[in-house]
Every structure is written in C-alpha cells, then in structure tokens.
Design goal:
Blueprint (H helix, E strand, L loop, with lengths): L1 H25 L1 H30 L4 H9 L17 H18 L9 H11 L12 H18 L7 H19 L11
Helix pairs in contact: 2-3, 4-5, 4-7, 5-6, 6-7
Length: about 190
Amino acid sequence: MWSWLQFVVSTVLPVAGRELLHWLYEWQVLVAGILAILAARIWGRSVVRAARYAALSAGAEPAVAQRSAAAAVVPFGSAKPKARKPEMQDHVFALREQIRLTLGRMPCTDDVLSAERLALCRKIAGMKLGELPKGAPKTMVQSYEVLRSGLSALGALRETDTCRRAWEALVRVNSDARELEKPEAAPAARRA
C-alpha cells in the first residue's frame, strides 16, 4: 500500500501535472475564451440585478427597471411600453433584497446597535408592501398581517437594543416575507 502511494505521488502526479500544464499551454486561447464568457455572464447578471434593486429601492416601478436593465437599446421609432403599477410581489422582493444586504452588514453579536445599523432597520421597517391582490386567499392575508407586525416590531428597535436582537428580527421578517411570496403555503408560525 505504501509503495503504491509513493509511486502515485512521485511518478504519476508529476507526469499528470506536466501533461495538464502542456495541454493548458496548447489550448490557452480556448480556455481563456471560455473563462471570459463565464465572467461576462456572471457580470451581466449582477448588473441587471443591481439595476433592478436600485430602481426598486429608489421607488421606481419594477417593470420599468427590469426593461431598462434587460434592454438598454430601444429601436428608433418604437413606442415606449406603458408602465404598470408595482405589485405586492415586487415590493416583497425589494424588501427581501434590502434585508439580505442589511444582514450582510450587521454582525450577530451582543454589541449595541450603532446609529447607522438602526437607521437601516428603520428603513426596512418603513418599506411599502403594496396592496394584497383582490380575492387573495386567507393564508395570504394572514401571512401579510404577520409580515406587517414583524415590520412594526423591527421599527420599534431602540438604540439600546443589541445587534443580535436586530439580526433575529430581520431574519424573522425575511422568513415571513418568504412565506408571503408563496401564497399556497401556510402562514409562518409566529416565533417568540
């Protein structure tokens, strides 16, 4: 067993490494092209997502933000599409995006909330949810009310509260918003 392992490490791996490097050298243009295409795809998706998020957090209508990010060039003479009223799902999506960004900036520690972090929490608590669609199922209405109460609890945070408490409130609101995004699911059970 030991001699086989020595053979693999001392003989096979160096030869395989040399062959791999030789192959990469021969095909470097193809490998670089594939990597450039992958990088462009990832970058393009992040630009579209950032434009959508920026438009939603600035209060612009989501349909306009998606169209402007996805189709930057409009053919000459074509009519501009009519903007639609943002739906509740668009508002919930923007809310969850803002919560994820805030959770990334806030540690889950017992430190006292800074003014900046408290302002972020209050900004989230003040975000619009939109209106429920007409004839919404009872579970959706319940989830909506649970989310509204979670947002008001988040808005009630004080300067003396800890980052951990704010973090847990943000996670709770995110979970409630996720439940609202899938109306066929039961409403989130209220956590203590």
